[in-house]
Design a protein that fits this description.
Elements: E1 5-14, E2 17-27, E3 32-36, H1 43-51, E4 58-63, E5 66-67, E6 78-81, H2 93-103, H3 108-121, H4 137-150, E7 155-159, H5 167-184, E8 187-192, H6 195-201, E9 204-209, E10 212-217, H7 219-224, H8 229-234, E11 241-248, E12 251-254, E13 257-260, E14 271-275, E15 281-282, E16 287-298, E17 303-309, E18 315-320, E19 331-336, E20 341-345, E21 350-351
Parallel strand pairs: 3-8, 3-9, 6-7, 7-8
Antiparallel strand pairs: 1-2, 1-4, 4-5, 9-10, 11-12, 11-14, 12-13, 14-20, 15-19, 16-17, 16-19, 17-18, 20-21
Bound molecules: adenosine-5'-triphosphate.
Length: 362
C-alpha cells in the first residue's frame, strides 16, 4: 500500500541560506511525483527532509496522515536510490540486493525469491553472482534500484538516479522506472534537473525555483498553462521564445499585432510574451512578425528553425515538419494563434488576459 506525503509550510535554512522556503505540497498516494528545477533550487534538500536525513527549520511532514517530521529515516516507510551508486564492492550483486532483507532477518529462501523477482524485473538475472566491479554503470544502477525494490517500500525516493548514465541507458531506465512504479504500487518522489525526465515519467511535476515550488501540476498543465516565465522556459525543448511587448494605452504590440492586456496595465509596465516553438508556424497567424532564418536543424521528423528578429534583438526558434521552402538567410513571416501566446510581467509572473477576445482560457 502506498502512502500520501503531506508537506505543510516546510522551510529549511542553513545559516543565512534559505534552501527551501515555505513549501506546502501534497504528494498523492501511489503517484509518481518529480521535483525538477535548476541547480540550487532546493530539490535535494526537500527530498532529504522527506527522507528524514535533514530536519526542517519549520513546518511539518506527514506520511499517510501521521506526523513524522522529526522521525529518523528508519522509522519512515521508505527506501532511497541515490545518484552515487553505493554498492558494497566485496559483495556479489545478489548479496548487495539482499543486504537490507538480511539485516531485517528475512529467511534465506524468501530473500532469494525476492532478489530473483527484483532481478527479473530489472533484467539483471544473469548478473546476480558477479561482483559490482564486473558490471557497467547502468547495471550497477539497476542493482542499486533492486536493493530498494526488494524492500517493497510504500514510498520510494530517487535522487538523480540517472545523472551518471548515458543517453541510451536513460531512455531504457525511464521506461523501467515507470514499470516499477506500477509493479510496486508505491508513491515515487523523483529528483532531477532534467525537464525531459520530469515530463516523460511523472503523474505530477513540482517545478522548483529558489527554494519554492513555482507550480505543482500534471506535465500537460505545466507545458500548456505555465504560471510564470520561469516555468514556461524551464520546461520544454527547445525553450519557450520570450519577446518584449510594446505597451501603449493599455494595448500591447508586437510589430503589427495587437494584444489585449488587462485594464490595469500601464505604459510603464514591461510586458513579455512567451510562445513555444511548437506553436509558431511559418506563414503567420494571429500574432505575426518577420524574422531571418539563421540555422535549420533537423531532428528526424521535425526541424528546429533558428531565426533572429529583423531588429536583431530576439532569437526565435520554430519547430516545423517541413523546411522545403526555407533557406538560411531568408526573411520569413512567422506567427501563432493568440490562444497559444502567454504574457508575463517583467517579474516573470503570468498576466492573465481579459476575455472575451480571446485569448486566454482560464
Ligand atoms: P542540485 O541540482 O545542484 O543538486 P538542488 O536543487 O538539489 O541542486 P540543494 O542541493 O537542495 O539544491 O541546495 C539548495 C541550496 O541550499 C543551495 O544554495 C545549496 O548551496 C544550499 N545547501 C544545501 N545543502 C547545504 C548544507 N548542508 N549546508 C549549507 N548549504 C546547503
Amino acid at each position: 500500500m502506498a502512502k500520501e506525503i503531506k508537506l505543510d509550510g516546510v522551510t529549511k535554512e542553513f545559516g543565512s541560506i534559505v534552501a527551501v522556503e515555505d513549501v506546502s505540497l501534497t504528494i498523492p498516494e501511489g503517484e509518481f511525483v518529480t521535483l525538477v528545477g535548476p541547480s540550487g533550487s532546493g530539490k535535494t534538500t526537500l527530498l532529504r527532509m522527506i527522507a528524514g536525513l535533514e530536519s526542517p527549520t519549520s513546518g511539518t511532514i506527514s506520511f499517510g496522515g501521521k506526523d513524522l517530521t522529526t522521525a529518523p529515516p528508519q522509522d519512515r516507510p521508505l527506501s532511497m536510490v541515490f545518484q552515487n551508486i553505493a554498492l558494497y564492492p566485496h559483495m556479489t550483486c545478489r548479496e548487495n540486493i539482499g543486504y537490507g532483507l538480511k539485516i531485517h532477518g528475512v529467511p534465506v529462501e524468501e530473500r532469494n525469491e525476492r532478489i530473483e523477482e527484483a532481478a527479473q524485473s530489472l533484467q539483471i538475472e544473469d548478473q546476480l553472482d558477479k561482483s559490482p566491479s564486473e558490471l557497467s554503470g547502468g547495471q550497477q544502477q539497476r542493482v542499486a534500484i533492486g536493493r530498494a525494490f526488494v524492500e517493497d517500500p510504500e514510498v520510494l525516493l530517487l535522487d538523480e538516479p540517472m545523472s551518471d548514465l548515458d543517453a541510451k541507458l536513460k531512455e531504457t531506465l525511464r521506461v523501467e522506472f515507470q514499470r516499477l512504479h506500477h509493479e510496486l504500487d508505491a508513491t515515487f518522489v523523483y529528483v532531477t534537473h532534467d525537464q525531459n525526465e520530469a515530463m516523460t515519467m511523472s503523474d505530477k511535476i513540482a517545478v522548483m525555483n529558489e527554494g519554492r515550488v513555482a507550480q505543482f501540476d500534471s506535465p500537460e498543465s505545466i507545458f500548456h498553462d505555465p504560471v510564470s516565465r520561469h516555468v514556461s522556459t524551464f520546461i520544454g525543448t527547445p525553450s519557450t521564445n520570450v519577446l518584449a511587448v510594446d505597451v501603449n494605452d493599455g494595448v500591447g504590440r508586437v510589430e503589427s499585432t495587437t494584444l489585449p492586456l488587462p485594464n490595469s496595465t500601464s505604459s510603464e509596465d514591461q510586458v513579455l510574451l512567451g510562445v513555444r516553438p511548437q506553436y509558431l508556424t511559418v506563414g503567420g497567424g494571429d500574432l505575426e512578425f518577420d524574422v531571418t532564418v539563421d540555422v535549420i536543424e533537423p531532428l528526424g521528423i521535425d526541424y528546429v528553425v533558428h531565426t533572429t528578429s529583423l531588429d536583431g534583438d530576439n532569437q526565435v526558434n520554430v519547430v516545423t515538419d517541413s523546411v522545403d521552402e526555407l533557406a538560411v538567410g531568408d526573411v520569413i513571416t512567422i506567427g501563432a494563434a493568440l490562444e497559444n501566446v502567454h504574457l508575463f510581467r517583467s517579474s516573470g509572473e503570468r498576466i492573465r488576459r481579459p476575455k472575451p477576445d480571446g485569448v486566454e482560457a482560464e
